[in-house]
Amino acid sequence: MAAPVQPERLFRERPEEEAGGAMSFFDHLVELRKRIVYSLIAIGIGMVGGFVVSKDFISYVMQPEIAALRANHLEDKLVYTGPAAPIGLIINLSLYLGVVIAMPYVLYQIWLFVAPGLYKHERRAVAGFILSSMALFLCGIAFGYYILLPRVLSFLISFTSDIPIRPLISINEYFDLILVVLVGLGVIFELPVLIFILSVFGLVTPKFLLKNFRYAMLLITVAAAIVTPSPDATTMIVFMSPMVVLYFIGVLVSYVVVRRKRAREKAETGT
Where are the domains of the chain? Predict the structure, then answer.
């Protein structure tokens, strides 16, 4: 009679590529709450760092508006309309800088939430995930600052050029608009990352994404109408074009994830 196999031996003989342990829906919610709390703490710490450097960023963020005013032969000055407005501006800017500073850690928390659904060798790709996600986030900010904002601000300033009125732009209102657009674009450019996460959990497939592309275009159009503050059709097209490209990059990412998962399942079942 064959000797019983020891539990320790069974554990050692498990394949290295085994996926992470199964988690219940409640466990996922607890894990998600923990990652959100850690991310908010990191953003709070980043906000402190953002407060230290916020004054150095004010003039940099003002450049698109100043360039638009100069292009229309107007006085390149922004004003504030309340004694506490500069303090509110610095606090607001510190918050957005805190988001940018804490983004690598926030992405790491996202990875820790996704990792249990990956195989062991895939969980080692944390550095690539963070670097690629951070690159997309910064590309979104750069796209907004260098391409989208100059078009939007130039359109808004020149829209009333034939009317005898002069703009008196509040610096707080300007920063409220610009910071939302820039950080919003950074988040929107994370679309391939979102599709990657949904594909890991089996919520979307390449076939599903291609089949529902028309609905994705509707959502992209709505997002363009919300994020771009001007009704200019050209500006909306400029915004929508990279979004469509990012969507198809996400389809490719989903294809790679689903293909690897199916190949691994076939290898495990021996079919």
Answer: 26-189, 191-271
